[in-house]
Each structure stands twice: as structure tokens, then as C-alpha cells.
Amino acid sequence: MTLTEEATAAEAPEKERWRPGGLELFVVLLLVVAVFSQQIASLASNYPGVQAGATIFVSIVVQALPFLALGVMLSGFITAFVPPSFWRKALPKNEALAVPVACASGVVLPGCECASVPVSGGLMARGVAPSAALTFLLAAPAINPVVLVSTYVAFPGQPEMTLARFVASFTTAVLMGWLWLRFGKTQWLRIPDRSHLVGDNKWHTFRLSAAHDFLHAGGFLVVGGLAAAVLNVAVPPSVLDSLASNPLTAILVMAVLAVVLCICSEADAFVAASFSQFPMTSKLVFLVVGPMVDLKLVALQGGTFGRRFVTRFAPATFIVATLTACIVGWFLL
Amino acid sequence: MKRDVQAVLLIFLGTALVRISLTDLYLRYVKAAMQPFLILTGIILLVLGVWALWDVIRDRGHEHPDDDLGAEAHDGHGHGQMRIAWLLMLPVLSILLIAPPALGAYSAERGNSSVAAPASDLGFDPLPTGDPVTMTLNEYATRAVWDNLGSLEGRTFELTGFVTPVPEAKMPKDLPADAQASWWLARLSLACCAADASATKILAVGAKPLPANTWVKATGRWIPGGGTESATAIPWLQIESLESIPQPKEPYE
Fold first, then answer.
1. CA dihedral A71, A221, B7, B96 (to 10 degrees)
2. What is the pLDDT of residues A110-151, one digit of tens each?
3. In chain B, ranges of CATH 2.40.50 domains
């Protein structure tokens, strides 16, 4: 195949989305920064705020990447080696009963939220009841072992935070499943297709799925890390101190931050812990809301299940998650 | 994002992680305990990247127009979702080529000093022998703020930290007229990563002015002042000698 033919083949079906020479762009970016790295570094040193922001950004990403890599490896493994029919057989026929079972099975899937959107879409496509699949969608990223361990690590000496996160997230996911069962309509949903991630054999599927999920979620992690770094440097500590001093505004601020910052559930505990002046319950709200509703998830869910779905599901989840976290925090923290 | 770029990006990100974790650079961002996990993650990404690149090369000979990007156009996932992966260039470039420095005086000055009360109220162990006694800033500050039996009295201490200029508004008013002080001896500590860094600050009394972020080994005696039994108190140290040192391998306490 000649170069022109290749270009035409790629360009024809999607003219506006084809990036001319992605690899070349990559190399040019790398060279430009390599040549000017001294200048960039010395320019940044004149602005200690920018420099501190860069350090915080890099450290959030570096801290989160091992957790993200573990998550996509395991979810790739499950995607490739656990047959879809397994989930259908494992779930009870009774839908109301299937919801908590799906929630519990979310405990064993260490995908981050970006991975669980396609997985739950796949479950629906293979005949799992939407209520159970949606419960799984909310539960898997919020209460899997990787997330619980990272929460435990991020809050040293406060194991009750991990317990509270588990209880509040589990409750929210089950409540949302039952709400969907009672009020949800199938025509709001569009069932996704993940066929391009099925490879020649199981290991190939594993590779495709892990690499895709990593790059996809990693990109959103960068967005969250940038936002957190900018907030960390741009917002004077005194403003956060005053917002944090009132329990009600603290809860609202942390709930909104969870939506805006879009941090992967495997890493969000570290960010929550960094808001040291905020009360514990508001940090719990952050941890419960974040993996279930945030800007990147709303975008992902909208892309996967359609807009009619996400405009109903996301606000409802936000409210249920915030209230549940407040109640659980009241008792446990 | 095309498949070849995906593969190269994974390889570069893996290289960046392996590189910072085999040198001391990673200690600017995370705790030492993360090292094995960072190396493992780097290797996983390298393997995924090389594997993906091998796929691309293998397919080059065949008719295979339907790459990852092409297929995504048909699955209704919304608009070019893998474009988001381009953002991973940011950590690749900043880790491999720039490696921003450890947090310093800017962050220490902004944050409140946090001197947590000791976990048990059984009192403090006796100070180790030695003259001067080498301590972390946090140990010194904890004793200065929370030990009401005066275990610090009459001893000399050696503390390592960096210079953080004291803003006019935060200079204590009750400083004796003959005492000079213009900076805090500060050190940051991490619970997890640099995003949650918290500062320990000690007022260097009687020290000559030094530029911000200068790392020093300070020897001095405890003098009362700066407040007690409060997590935000900033205790004092009467400086006897200062030695300028390079930044320690582990910049955080």
C-alpha cells in the first residue's frame, strides 16, 4: 500500500477526525521541548507558583499511574478471560435481587470508572438487566480492592474512612439500581459496542483492552491532575479555610470539586487527603461522588449510553451519593 | 490517536517512569515506598507499548485499514475519545525533559505549619544522648509545642531544612528587641504525594538573612516563644551556627 492510498483509506470515512501524521506531531513536540527544556525550566523558576503547580501535577500523575496500570491490567484480564455469559449466570433472575448481587460483584472488578462504563455497556449488550448493569457501573470503580487499599494508604491511621467509603458507595449504587428499576425506561438507553477491542485471541484482546483503557483513563487523569494542581496553587489557602470551616459549605464545595476535578477513583483518595482543612464527612462526600459522577464520566456515559440517559442518571446519582455520604459520615466518622 | 502513536506514547511514558524511579528524581514527587511500584508500572507500560508496536508493524504488510481509531468511529462512543490520550504527552514531557523541582519555600510559606499533637499522652521519651542532638524538624517542633516538661531545655540541636522568608505580617510581635529573625527553617512532609505536602516551620532566631530555598544544617538551642499546645504554633530556635548544604536525597521528611 503506498502512502497516498494509506492516507485516503484513513481519511475517507472520517475526514475531520483524522490527524495528519500523529507520529510526526509526537516527535516534533518531543524535540521542541527537548531543545527548550532549559529555557522552560528557568522561565518557570521565575514563577514559584507555576513551578509548584508543575510539581504537584507531576506528583499526582506519578502517584496515580501504578494504581491505574493495575486497574487496567486486571480489567483487561477479566474482559479477555472471563466469558460474558459468566455474569449473566452469576446474577439472580429476580431483578430487585440482582441489583445488590451486581453491586457485590463490583467489588471484585478493579477497573476505574472509565473502564467500568464500557464493561457495564457490554453487560447490557449481553442481556444483563440495565438496573443491575448500572449498579455495577457505579459500584465497580467505587468499592473495588485497589480503591479501598489506596484509600487506606491515603488516610493513614484512619481506617474508618475506608469503611465509610465502602458503606456509602455500596448503598448509593444499590439505591440507584433500585431507582432505575422503579422509574427507569429502556428507551433512554443506547447499548454500546466494544467490538473493536476484541482481538485475534484472548491475549490480544487483553492487550487491546488494557492499552485502550490505560490511554483513555490516563488522559482524563491528566485533566484531573492539572485541575487539582491549578486549584492548589491558584486558590489561596485562606479561601479554602473559610469554606472548610462551615460543614455545609464544606460538603457542597467538596461535592462540586469531585465533579469538576474528574480524578480517577484509584487516585482520588490522595487528592481528598490533601484537602487537609476540610472536615472528614466532606472528604467522604468527595470520595463517594467522584467515582460515580464527574465531568469526564458524564461525557463518557453520554457517549456510551446516549444523552437522554445521562441527563437523568447523572443528577440523580449526584444527589443520592451526596446524601448517602452525609448520613454514613454522620454515623461512622 | 493512531495506533502507532499510542504504542510510542506508552513506551515513552514507561521509560519516563523507569527513569525517575531508578534515580532519586521520584523522591521529589512521591514517597520512597513507591519505588518498586513505579518501576513495575514502567515495565508494564513498556511491555504494552512494545507489544502494540509489534502489532502495528505486523499489520503493516496486510490490508488493515480498520485501526483502533477507525473502528472507534463506528461505535458511537462520541467524538474521538482517544484524543484525550494526547494529554499524556504532558507528564511524558515534564517528567523526561524538565522534572520540576521538589516543593520548597513557596509552598512552605503558604501552608499553615502543622504540628500534630502526639498520639499518646504518656509524655515524651528522654532525648537521645549526643551533642548536638540530631532531630527532624517535626520532632523538634512537636516537643517544643506539646512537651510541657521542658525536655528541650539546655540541649543543642542539629536540624536540616530550607530557608523560607517570613512575610512581614507573620513576624511574631513578641520577639525580643535584640533578636534578629528573618526566615523560618522549614521542611515539608508528605502523607502520600506532593499534592498533600504539609509544612513544619521553626523561626530561626539570630540567623543572618539567606536567600529562599537555601538548604542549611542549623545548630542551635531551644528558646521559649512561638506558642505552645496549638497545631499551628511555630516554635523558635536560637541559632548558634549554620552550614549551607546541598538538597538532601529525600527532600521531604
1. -120
2. 666 666 777 777 778 767 889 998 998 899 889 988 889 889
3. 106-244
